[in-house]
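Researcher: Can you fold this with flavin-adenine dinucleotide in place?
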Amino acid sequence: MAKKIDSKIPAGPVPEKWKEYKAHQRLVNPKNKLKLDVIVVGTGLAGASAAASLGEMGFNVINLCIQDSPRRAHSIAAQGGINAAKCYQNDGDSVYRLFYDTVKGGDYRAREANVYRLAEVSNNIIDQCVAQGVPFAREYGGMLANRSFGGAQVSRTFYAKGQTGQQLLLGAYSSLSCQVNAGKVKLYTRYEMEDVVIVDGRARGIIAKDLCTGKLVRFSANAVVIATGGYGNTYFLSTNAMGCNCTAAVQCYRKGAYFANPSYVQIHPTCIPVHGDKQSKLTLMSESLRNDGRIWVPKKIEDAKALQAGTKQGWEIPEEDRDYYLERRYPAFGNLVPRDVASRAAKERCDKGFGVNNTGLAVFLDFSESINRLGLDVIMQRYGNLFEMYEEITDVFPGDVANEINGVKYYKPMMIYPAIHYTMGGIWVDYELQTSIPGLFAIGECNFSDHGANRLGASALMQGLADGYFVLPYTIQNYLADQAVWPKVSTDLPEFAEAEKKVDEEQDRLLNIKGKRSVDSIHKELGHIMWEYVGMGRTAEGLKTGLKKMHELEKEFDTNLFVPGTKEGLNIELDKAIHLRDFFTMGQLVAFDALSRNESCGGHFREEYQTEEGEAKRDDENYFYVGCWEYKGKGNEPELIKEPLEYEAIKVQTRNYKN
Ligand SMILES: Cc1cc2nc3c(=O)[nH]c(=O)nc-3n(C[C@H](O)[C@H](O)[C@H](O)COP(=O)(O)OP(=O)(O)OC[C@H]3O[C@@H](n4cnc5c(N)ncnc54)[C@H](O)[C@@H]3O)c2cc1C
């Protein structure tokens, strides 16, 4: 290892130091006597919760987002729920069990201490959100209701129908608005961070663009927090909101922040299949549906062929001819195996020719059994908006009876297929969520912290809100305590002028290429390369080909791009071009990391490394580390720095979801 990484992890999974943070916070921050400023970039669940908490604690917060309102951040899309170890179901859940499931679900590639802290604060999140008025679903008796998500054998997921993210975001937004009203948070909507400004080795501010006027603006502060989401849209087609991008994270990476585990990309098993090449967005059908929906394909290849040809429908296939392959392969977890396992199993069936739609790339998600058992009313209470969303997109309502065989009613099944959904990799942070640049913090999906090689369902909201409400507000003070004696730097410093000039010149460069291809056409092609060579099944040879193709396409981007309009005023195409420039950097980083990791783990599946049963085969001897990448300039291979993982409480073993 060329460089040493200090992850500041206290010994053991139950950090004593954590208690010190809490005491420290009371000492350092007696309600804004210190006049410390913090920039929080992003108003998703991570950013909004952090900005609201920091404002409440007395800091002066500058909070930015690219949407017209924080309420429209991508977090609003989250459907299924948020995990916590409350054990309201009395089913044996505990902080330890949530911790254990999350580490196991991440295929033993997460930091143990971080995950324990996450499990520990999970219960506080639910209390906080209930206090804000988040309308979680309740049992008849008034108790908060729970359902199960993948990788767990208890019910620990709190939810608000299929709109959990929206309701949680409204809660965070009301706290944020309170601080805006109190003058502690200054909100800048439709502002995009274009660069981070480093002065004397510390993050001291950012350059942002007013997206409506095109004007570049300088902000300085005592610390910068980025909460700008994941990089799933590198693949063009994903379940992410169209505006999701990785520009802020990639700019931090270019300025020296390490990027950790980029190859850990989550492919979600239950998305509406791609239905043509004019599509620019994929739609998720929440994992919560796997509580009551059963996944299957036909047992007989001739049935599959008939389905693909459109001469047969799923509901015409009787029970005995259906292969509930997840229940067959993983009897203990059945349809609720983690996402990486379920996605690969769907791909395996479709690769063998058992796909159920005209492209052969779909499997059924069928509610017949649960509707027959519970009634349509109950199922609609649980998933009503998801059924309606599915109908709106496909014109099929999964609650419609389609057939009756031997007195059993069969309902129209959904068709689903895996798609890019979430990114476990992200900006490297230490235990205090500080990046490798002092004064720069990263929270929520944009950091790499807690999910290892695969995130369990309903754990992203948990992590984002843990970071924003309960971790960063404490840990950032270890940094700020030392900063209190230093005045905030002026935005007139040459470092700000230089960063702004570079952003401006970069816009001119893109506008002046004046080639023939639109941003979207190039982005779509990049997405194809990513999916084909850096997607669900990767090989060394494929990754090398993918990298070569990406380089060629990046050249095409640099020489044949066409961006209409000017940099003055609103120019969405120009903003998209900047995002695409950074998706190229990101795509290559994902491929480099995937190529360097000669093993399969979680969402990173190298076809050369699998068991006889097609399961991921880890190599703990050689790859039991966090892979951190340091930027070495455009066109150059980044440098790999390894942070070894240390497990004390959990025995590292092969994942088993069969028994
Ligand atoms: C369809 C779908 C369903 C999901 N369902 C669930 C679920 O049920 N449970 C669960 O736990 N997780 C779920 N997830 C994952 C979860 O929603 C996300 O991981 C989480 O919301 C990310 O929150 P965040 O605050 O980190 O980022 P985001 O919500 O992506 O917010 C990013 C913020 O950063 C801002 N931003 C970005 N770039 C810039 C820039 N350069 N300058 C200024 N601002 C910028 C944006 O405006 C936005 O405010 C789901 C994801 C999807 C796609």
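Model: Folded with flavin-adenine dinucleotide in place. The radius of gyration is 24 Å.
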